[in-house]
Automatic annotation (TrEMBL):
<keyword id="KW-1133">Transmembrane helix</keyword>
<feature type="transmembrane region" description="Helical">
    <location>
        <begin position="40"/>
        <end position="61"/>
    </location>
</feature>
<feature type="transmembrane region" description="Helical">
    <location>
        <begin position="155"/>
        <end position="173"/>
    </location>
</feature>
<keyword id="KW-0175">Coiled coil</keyword>
<keyword id="KW-0812">Transmembrane</keyword>
<keyword id="KW-0472">Membrane</keyword>
<protein>
    <recommendedName>
        <fullName>TRP C-terminal domain-containing protein</fullName>
    </recommendedName>
</protein>
<feature type="coiled-coil region">
    <location>
        <begin position="239"/>
        <end position="266"/>
    </location>
</feature>
<feature type="transmembrane region" description="Helical">
    <location>
        <begin position="106"/>
        <end position="134"/>
    </location>
</feature>
Length: 266
């Protein structure tokens, strides 16, 4: 939706002085129809691109005291059900993170479309926003689950590396036949970058499935867990085994008592 709204603005100017809409070159940017489209697009910028994150932030801000309560109270508070999806994945003190993330995505996919499309300036601004977002993420770790923070950091890092490679693609001195790096090398690096965090996502999914199927013990012991985690798992297993043995002994004792009563009656 954001890209669709902002695609109304960029126009391609020809040598003849004519300007045509970049997204649809059959539309004259100097026509009255395009002027109406631009006016409507600006309204949608306010309603959607500004209003949605702003409205979500306002809803969260009004309920921030309840959101920052203990986890049990948050779960039991039915008044939060309508906005629960906006904060349930984040730590209570970072209740505002979802609107922040919305704003980042809108900026990256929308506002940058009208900023010197295809230029170094566009890449640099996008790079700067990504670095700031990664820094905020690493200093705050807003997600409840540590794995979610790790995946988000990997995603931001991937974006930053991809943008660095875009600078190389843009630079004909490096990508051209006479450059130090050929286009084939850049293509391979781009593909590799997109696949960097795939194993991390697979690990996260496997760990989640393991925890869901195996219960609390599987959640405690990570895949390839450390010595401390394995030791705790062994202790829990031993405790469960001893409890099972105790139940069996009680059952046998009850059976022996019943047999003794039967013999006395005879």
């Amino acid at each position: 939706m954001t890209r669709l709204i902002f695609s109304t603005f960029p126009c391609l100017e020809l040598d003849t002085g004519e300007r045509w809409l970049l997204a649809d070159k059959s539309i004259d940017c100097d026509s009255a129809a395009h002027a109406r489209m631009v006016a409507y697009a600006w309204i949608m910028v306010v309603v959607f691109c500004v209003g949605v994150p702003g409205g979500c932030f306002l809803l969260l801000w009004r309920q921030r005291d309840k959101i920052m309560a203990s986890e049990d109270k948050r779960k039991e508070d039915k008044s939060l059900n309508s906005i629960r999806s906006l904060f349930e994945n984040y730590k209570p003190e970072h209740w505002y993170w979802e609107p922040v993330e919305m704003t980042r995505r809108i900026f990256m996919t929308g506002f940058l479309v009208v900023l010197a499309r295809g230029s170094f300036a566009q890449i640099v601004v996008c790079q700067g926003v990504s670095i700031v977002a990664l820094t905020m993420l690493k200093t705050r770790s807003p997600f409840l689950r540590g794995n979610d923070n790790l995946v988000a950091e990997a995603m931001y890092t991937q974006i930053i590396i991809t943008l660095l490679l875009c600078v190389l693609v843009k630079s004909s001195a490096e990508v051209g036949d006479e450059g130090e790096l050929g286009s084939g090398t850049i293509d391979a690096l781009l593909v590799s970058t997109q696949l960097l965090f795939a194993p991390l996502l697979l690990y996260k999914k496997l760990k989640g499935d393991r925890a869901q199927e195996g219960g609390a013990l599987a959640a405690i012991v990570p895949l390839g867990g450390g010595e401390g985690a394995v030791s705790l798992a062994e202790k829990l297993t031993l405790a469960e085994a001893r409890a099972s043995e105790a139940d069996a002994l009680r059952s046998r004792l009850n059976e022996a008592e019943d047999e003794l009563r039967r013999l006395k009656q005879e």
